[in-house]
Amino acid sequence: MRAIAVLATVLVLTGCSPTEIACTEIGAPPGVGVTVDKALATKVDAVRLTVCWDGNCHDRNVSLSPGSDTVDQGCNGTGPDSACSATAVPNGTKIGFVEVLGLPAGTVMISATIRKAGKHVALPEIAAQAKPTYPNGPQCPAQGNQVQVVVGASGLR
Question: Residues 104, 129: contact at Cβ < 8 Å?
């Protein structure tokens, strides 16, 4: 019992506690993540979003790149010297992210224009929920608000 009391005193005096959590300086920008469905990805050359809230609208071109899935490669052993790995495997989608400064948490309206086979196609506006991100986990302060949308055969969702 005395050993526990001594350990607790040392932890308090050194400023350490088993529940102390470090929050790093990592950030997450406010914005919209875009995925172009596999069925459309080879046909869509470009995406332009319009994001609106409180009477203000922001137009952004989305830079697209190939999407991928992460495949677990397993681990080689156990303990502190073990190593685990994963690999990215193309999944046929296209992805992108656009920063939208001032994006609030809550409902925002998003519409898109895509360039498909050289022609511009307008997609109907949808309501989407932007939410705060927690890159250090929920025990740390929130960072930029973000929302994810998908460009699919039936439009924007």
Answer: no
Residue with tokens 């080879």: 42
Phi-psi region of 3 (alpha: psi -120 to 50; beta: other; left: phi over 0): alpha
pLDDT tens sequence across 12-37: 444 444 456 788 888 899 999 999 99
Q: What is the pTM of this model?
A: 0.77
CA-to-CA dists, residue 122 to 14, 16, 99, angstroms: 61, 56, 21
- Are the beta carbons of 113 and 124 closer than 8 angstroms? no
Contact 31, 98 (CB under 8 A): yes
Share in percent of the chain as helix, strand, coil (round to 5) = 10, 55, 35
Q: How far apart are CA 128 and CA 108, in angstroms?
A: 5
For the chain, which domains are there?
26-156 (2.60.40)
DSSP state of 104: P
What's the burial of 65, exposed, middle or buried (CB within 10 Å: 0-12/13-18/19+)?
exposed
